[in-house]
Each structure stands twice: as C-alpha cells, then as structure tokens.
# Entry
Amino acid sequence: MEFYAVTRKGVHVYAYEPGEKMPEPAFTFPAVQSADSCEWSSDGSLLGLVDEAGGVTVYNAAAGYAKVCSVPPLVGGPVRNFYFSPLGNHLVTYERPPPGAGNNVGLWDAKTGEMRFSFTLKQMTGMSWPPLKWTSLETHCCRMVQDGVQIMPGTCDRESAEMSRINAPGIMAFEVAPRGSGSGGTGSTHVAICIAEWKGQPARCQVFKLDDPSRATATKNFFKAQTVTMKWNNTGSALLVKTAMEVDDTGKSYYGGSNLYFLRADGEESSIVAAAEGGAIHDVQWNPTQDEFVLLHGPLPCPATLHEGRKGAKRMDFGTGHRNTIRWNNFGRFFALGGYGQLLGDTDFWDKPGKKVMGSTRMECCVVCGWAPDGRHFLTATTAPRMRVDNKIEIFDYVGSNFGKLAFDELLMAGWRPRPRGAFQDRPPSPGRERVEAAAKAGAKAAPKAAGAYRPPGARGGGGLAEQLRKELGSTAASSATTATK
# Structure
C-alpha cells in the first residue's frame, strides 16, 4: 500500500508495509501550490499534479510514476481544481477566470493530453463542482447548464453522438447515479436534479432516467433549501437529499438548520429521515457495498443510527457520543465514528456485522482521515492551514492501535493511494484481537494515589466551568455504547 503527503517542499509518496516502521519517501515530486493541486484516479493508476507552467502533468503510478502527458492551462493558469473520470479516461480542469477570459473548464484525454472540448464556469461552488459527472462505467456523462442538464455519452463525443436534455429552469444541483438500479446494475441509470424555491413555490428534487429523460420517475418537494447535497447508494436505487439554511429559525443551532430526505429512484418511497427540529445533521454516509446508511443527527452527544435503504427506516442504534464524522472502509464491514474539528478527536471503530466496538482511541487535531485500501488501517493527518503547528500523519489499525507517526513542518494534504476493487480481500476481525493499550490497562493494578496539592471543590472534577466545558467537548467513550442495539 502507498500513501502520499502534499507539503510545501514537495509531494511525497510512501510505500507502507503493515507492522513496519514509518518509511522514507519512495517517490518525490516538485512542490505544488495547494492541497487541490494533487489528485488520483479512482483506481490509483494515475496521479495528477499541477506543474510549474500552471497546467497538469499526469503520471502512471503503475509504471514507476513515469510521465504520461501534460495538459496546458486554458486562460493563463494555474489550474485550481481538477479530477479524473471514474475509469481514468478523462481529465477535467478548472481555472479561475480573469475578466474577459474565455472558457476556463477543459475536458482532456487523460492518456494523450488532447482537449475534447471546453466551456465556461463562472462560479465554482459546492453545488456546481464537479461540472461533469459520469456513471461508474462511463456509459453516460451529464453537465449542468443554466436551465437544465445535458446528457452525453460517456466518451463525451458531442459531434457524432446523440445528446439529450432535461429542461429544468432554476436548477441548483444535480447528481448522477453510479449505475443502473436493476439486478446486477442492468437497469436504467438515473440522474437526480434539484430546483430552487421560487416565488413561494417549494424547492423540488426530481429523478430521471438517463435513457428516457422525458418524465420524472420520482419527485420530492421541500422548503428551506438554500443549499443541497445529494448522495446515491451504491446500487443507484435510492437517494439521500440533505438541504440546509444559513440561519436556523428554530434557534437550536448557530450553524443553520438542515433536513435529510430519503427518496427511491422508482418513486415508491419518499420520507424525511432527520428534521432541523431534532438538531444538526453532522454526517450521513451510505455503506459502499450494501443498501444502508449511518446517520449522526441531533445535539451533542448525538446518537449514531443505521438505516435500511428500502424505506430509510432505522434498523440499529450505536449509542450516543461526541461524534461528527463517519468513515466506512471499502468493504462496508468496518466503520469509524469520530469527533473532529472543535471536538477532542475521540474515535470508535465498529464491526458492523459483529455489532460491536473493536477499539477506541483519541486522534487529536485530526483534519483529514480515511481507511486504507485493505480496509484494516486508518490514516489521520493534521494539516495546514487549519493547524499551523504539529502537522503530522498517523496510521492506526482497525482497533485503534497507533502504528506510527510522521511529522512535517507544513503539511497541506495526505491520504492513501486508491487501489482497484479486488486488490485486497475483505476479512473479519482477527480472533482475540484487541487494542494493546486497552488490554494492558485492564491487566494493570491500580497505582497508589499520591497526595497532591489542595484543590477547592469547584476544581475537583465534580463541577465548575472547566468541567462543564470538558463535557461539552466530549470525552472518550463517556456515554458511547460498545454494542449495537435494534
């Protein structure tokens, strides 16, 4: 397995062997301007880096990082954001447009660097990026335009191929399902769009078939939707729609209000899963291999719940805790629940089939995190500009044992090199495996308590402002469950 580190001095790729000490860089590339200047293809075969000319250079990671091609900037550069299509056939670049500039988004052949076409994206937001979205097998490609969605073949050959269109004035976001919703992915693939509120009319989410976009197969109306985020399940049969407002009119949150809706592509089911009145929606993530999702919703300490993907109903409860982040491993077997950002970094590792916590630890000042392709190792990183000091990468196993640490003067981004499906096999927890620190603590005798300085009652942990602040931030497994309940 390999992981990478984007620093001010260069981009480093490390070859990691589980159980060995943290390695030295196996490959080093010239420094890039930002964390967004480094991207991998979804199978990890290609690495793209913004070069000194302001374009993107593509390297073949499977051939010793040999140079594949270079893509020039369109409007003077540098490229601010870019990404690969799901199969790594295409590369999409975005540059911040200067006044009077031409097209600032380019679609390129990722193997030759040849430009397919370009267009203008006036403003890049969370709902307008990425501007081109493919199905997982690149059978179709969709692009949001001013009053609708263009549907193209996955090759993006606009001259000889037939294109269709969904007319949707006021469209604010769209999301393409990864594959067809039928058995084995053989059914029609869908695209979901969201149209903004207008003159007292509610916002609405609609689902269309890419092969027959003449009518919607499902529709859900809702108010209070300044921004929207849509997430398909892995089979393309169901959709989660998270709507948000900048101001929470219930007065329960400083960060605005949000609602979560469930919608099936065939229109047979639609419901509200989490409402703003119940508190903030901290995170929600689909299982990458099964039709279910985990939700963190409510005032901290909030409950963590598992919902099935047929109707969105709750199926399992994982207790409560100060957690705001969910990370599934690639196989959908293990998932991590962590409390990062303003929280202390307490993290629980769950075995979903076993319905129990395998281990817990504290990952202080964690900014980015993710599972390794083998599904058994977990990387965390403290990065700038969020944290200007103590930038580092740490690797843990699936029970929370720390396997090593790398320190940096200024770390911009870190993560694992992706690997294709089939490179690793799914495995259950090893029999008798438990966190070493926890076992040692359980077997050790309590040390005699030394006499200390006098402390007033308010500072003895039973009350006072400091104790109240600690409770608000959260503490390790203070109220978290260790087994799931139905």
Q: What stands out?
A: The radius of gyration is 24 Å. The chain has two helices and 37 strands. Residues 436-450 have pLDDT under 50 and may be disordered.
